[in-house]
Specification:
This protein is of the alpha/beta class and about 140 residues long. It has a single domain, classed as Protein-Tyrosine Phosphatase, Chain A (Alpha-Beta Complex), CATH 3.90.190. It is built from six helices and five strands. It has helices spanning about 20-25, 45-55, 75-85, 100-110, 115-125, 130-135, and strands spanning about 5, 10-15, 30-35, 60-65, 90-95. Strands 1-2-5-3-4 form a five-stranded mixed β-sheet, sandwiched between helices. Helix 4 runs antiparallel to helix 5. The N and C termini lie far apart (about 35 Å).
Amino acid sequence: MDIRALTSEYAVSPQITPDDVRAIAAAGYRTIICNRPDYEVVAEVRADAVRSAAEAEGLHFVVNPLPQGDVNSEAVEMQRSAIETSDGPTLAYCASGTRSTIVWMFGAAANVPAGDLVEAAHRAGYPLASLRPLLEPLSKV
């Protein structure tokens, strides 16, 4: 498992397995968000399999699939809402963590300067400076 914190309350990861969930819970995460569509993965790691493991550990599980190249406003709002309503830190995953990072950036853009979002992504290993011109108009800070 390769968990990368973007903030103290939100981290991303490449694909997780049901066997990873116990360690995720032990690390203090309270919500898991699946951003990977089921058609990209084998049955053993599809959302329902991870959901079962998460619920067995008392974690909240949200499915918000993001097809490659399709981060839309509904997905951004769903991600933002799941993060805001979580009763503790949230871990989101996709194939590499990139989509989970991008959807978070757009959800946080109104309240966090674009440069800070780009820097957080970069520190976590996601060089997404090309998104800065798209994030800046969304900022209210």
